[in-house]
Predict the 3D structure of the following.
Amino acid sequence: MSSTALVRIPVGVVVERRKAVSQWLDYLWRPVSVLAGEPAAAPWTPLGNDGDVHTFYAGSAVVELYRTETANYLGNLQSGTPSLWVVLRPTDGEPAYELFAVTADPAEGEAFTEAGNDLVDTVPMPGTIVEVLEAFVAEHHVERPFYKRQRDRAEPETLARRSRAKENDE
């Protein structure tokens, strides 16, 4: 973002690793939740194991809120299921991914999907973050009217002169 973040919300991310049913992949990874605040655990701390499904605390990130993006935040809040976009970037070693970003901006979340191999998925937004986001939008959102641009009408006489001038040049 080009402007300075007005609010920074620390979060922790929990991810899940499942045994893949594929000859090309060993495991499937996906974010499963975001915790408000930063847990004291070290990144990639195992949290649980249920057969072929393992959960890990992937690490912490910061959700940054910008005044210029309030329309996007408002759309997220009005969607009925406010979400956060979690971005995991592949590594060449273990663990297989690193936590790259977490955002509340749907447009930014979608933009992360264009980066190639990043794993981008949504998780439900915790209630405490919903409250912070609602207060931020209430304070900073300015409704901007939509203006449809009108095309200029073509002047038939001007077009005719241009056509005649072009014929004379040839």
